[in-house]
Amino acid sequence: MLEPLMFLILGTVMALWPGRWVFGSSTVRARRLREIDEGADERYFEERRELTEYVPSPRFLLPWRIIGAVTAIGAAGVLIVRSGIAG
Predict the structure, then answer these.
(1) What are phi and psi of 48, to 5 degrees?
(2) Any residues with CB less than 8 A from the CB of 26 and at least 6 apart, and which?
(3) CA-to-CA distance for 1 and 80, rounded, in angstroms?
(4) 41-81 pLDDT, tens per residue?
């Protein structure tokens, strides 16, 4: 009973707030870019360019929303079947 409930919660969070999962490194990215702007050395060739040019787009979040919704719906279905409401 605990697993479907956990998947229901996680799927809902993924569907509603996918940026929490996907862009968790965005604060790390911004902090590192700020460090480079303040004069820190780049760790590898063109690190600054990578940090500024290759930012994931919001369109990238759509698959995460879909996966979260499917997970939540599937978990809700399992909870309904296990509770005996469906028949």
Answers:
(1) -60, -45
(2) 19
(3) 11
(4) 898 888 888 888 877 677 778 888 899 999 999 999 998 88
Report yes or no: 75 and 4 within 8 Å, Cβ to Cβ. yes
Render the burial of 7-33: b for 16+ CB within 10 Å, e for the rest.
bbeebbebbeebeeebeeeeeebeebb
CA gap 22, 17 in Å, rounded: 9
Provide the CB-side half-sphere exposure for 83 (13 A, CA).
12
pTM of the model: 0.59
Quickly count: other Cβ atoms within 10 Å of residue 68's Cβ: 21
